[in-house]
């Protein structure tokens, strides 16, 4: 597999740090409002990455943070005159409902920033001790970007050619004015009771230190993938690299993947233009989860794509073709099935996915194959070999893209149970594995263990 690494600006062959294991960190929602379709373009791309890694047999540990304290969350709580935790809990709950509805496989861990303050303080202590950070009289702590020679590598800026201003307290700012950024923000009156005690004074963490501390806690100081949208590249991911590398003296992340912006109705999302869609809005318009997934996955993750209400009918037609084909194949009586029996097109499909998750090319391969199989079946060809290979390719396609209707696709909670069972089998805790198999069967699915991992089938 090759991936386009945003750090090197080239495709690189993926080599896991630990054999057959993948550490994946994805920047999650800032829970001050409902996540919108632009956010979910990134989350669904990350779901495709994770699904494909799982399909390829990797043991994926996926961590997605929940930003429940930052400038935006505090400002929203102040605007509506409610406690911070009331606001963040409301939108966290909505996010998880949207994730389940969109058939996104849940992360292994969803760490909340407010529950990991001690780890952030420990990292800031290290940066201060090593001379990469400094304290201000008001109790704030800043990272000195001039102290890290590689600062700007991800976003491709040279500090020597930039106007470097003193400091910035805001979480977000432009790359043409790189500045020392806040690791710890001193307590302010407008923050109310949102503060924690630290050796340098009461306050709260800066946004960037949150992800560095939480990723290292759950994935270690050096891991395989870090993903987000292109808007995360600067300053967020640039700052994450600086503070993580300087605190650990180790490489931080091997491969950085970023999804492009999503256009909506031909333009940038804006409430004033009426093209600002939350998942709840799209549900009310009659969109299915599969329609949204298809529109967001039909373009390559590194290209801008346009999400539109006008494309709903066209996407539904494609989904009906997919569903009709699946019904046609699965309704045929299958005498026996060899899981290794796969058509040549399957390997073309995998070759496309291996090349930086080229979903459009992979979809084209699948659709052309589907057309050919329909022709053969129209002419009476229903050999065991054809039906067996067709079912196997169908299962693989469904596991990777999740485009079949909810009733026909494996629900996320079943996937979660199956992942727990895989972990139990790996540790040879057979009693737990058997209990989980029984629980999965009670919920209507059969687990089939193969040389390449497990398969889930509807009973």
Automatic annotation (TrEMBL):
SMART domains named among the record's database cross-references: DALR_2
Pfam families the UniProt entry points to: CysS_C (PF23493), DALR_2 (PF09190), tRNA-synt_1e (PF01406)
Cofactor(s) demanded: Zn(2+)
Molecular function per GO: ATP binding; cysteine-tRNA ligase activity; metal ion binding
PANTHER family reported in the protein's UniProt record: CYSTEINE--TRNA LIGASE, CYTOPLASMIC (PTHR10890:SF3), CYSTEINYL-TRNA SYNTHETASE (PTHR10890)
Family note: Belongs to the class-I aminoacyl-tRNA synthetase family.
Protein name per the record: Cysteine--tRNA ligase
């Amino acid at each position: 597999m090759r991936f386009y690494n945003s750090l090197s600006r080239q495709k690189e062959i993926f080599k896991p740090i630990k054999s057959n294991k993948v550490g994946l960190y994805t920047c999650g929602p800032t829970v001050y409002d409902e996540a919108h379709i632009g956010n979910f373009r990134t989350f669904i791309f990350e779901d495709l990455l994770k699904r494909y890694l799982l399909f390829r047999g990797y043991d994926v540990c996926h961590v997605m943070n929940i930003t429940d304290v930052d400038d935006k969350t505090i400002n929203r709580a102040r605007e509506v005159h409610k406690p911070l935790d009331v606001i963040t809990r409301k939108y966290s709950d909505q996010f998880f409902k949207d994730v389940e509805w969109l058939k996104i496989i849940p992360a292994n861990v969803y760490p909340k920033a407010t529950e990991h303050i001690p780890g952030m303080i420990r990292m800031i202590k290290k940066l201060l001790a090593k001379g990469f950070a400094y304290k201000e009289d008001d109790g704030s702590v800043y990272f000195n970007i001039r102290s890290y020679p590689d600062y700007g590598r991800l976003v491709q800026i040279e500090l020597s050619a930039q106007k470097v201003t003193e400091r910035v307290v805001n979480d977000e700012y432009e790359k043409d004015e790189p500045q020392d950024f806040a690791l710890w923000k001193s307590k302010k009156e407008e923050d109310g009771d949102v503060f924690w005690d630290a050796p340098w004074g009461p306050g709260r963490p800066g946004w960037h230190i949150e992800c560095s501390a939480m990723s290292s806690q759950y994935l270690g100081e050096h891991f395989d993938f870090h993903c987000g949208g292109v808007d995360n590249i600067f300053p967020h991911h640039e700052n994450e690299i600086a503070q993580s590398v300087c605190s650990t003296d180790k490489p931080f992340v091997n491969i950085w993947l970023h999804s492009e912006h999503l256009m909506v109705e031909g333009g940038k999302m804006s409430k004033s233009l009426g093209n600002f869609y939350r998942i709840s809005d799209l549900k009310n318009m009659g969109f299915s989860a599969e329609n949204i997934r298809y529109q967001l996955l039909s373009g390559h993750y590194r290209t801008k794509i346009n999400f539109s209400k006008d494309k709903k009918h066209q996407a539904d037609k494609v989904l009906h073709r997919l569903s009709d084909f699946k019904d046609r194949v699965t309704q045929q009586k299958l005498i026996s099935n060899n899981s290794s029996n796969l058509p040549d097109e399957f390997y073309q499909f995998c070759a496309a996915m291996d090349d930086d998750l080229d979903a459009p090319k992979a979809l084209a391969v699948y659709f052309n194959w589907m057309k050919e199989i329909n022709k053969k079946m129209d002419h009476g060809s229903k050999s065991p070999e054809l039906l067996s290979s067709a079912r196997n390719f169908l299962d693989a396609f469904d596991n990777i893209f999740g485009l079949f209707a909810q009733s026909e696709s494996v629900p996320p909670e079943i996937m979660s149970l199956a992942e727990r069972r895989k972990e139990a089998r790996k540790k040879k805790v057979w009693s737990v594995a058997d209990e989980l198999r029984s629980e999965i069967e009670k919920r209507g699915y059969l687990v089939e263990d193969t040389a390449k991992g497990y398969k889930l089938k509807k009973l």
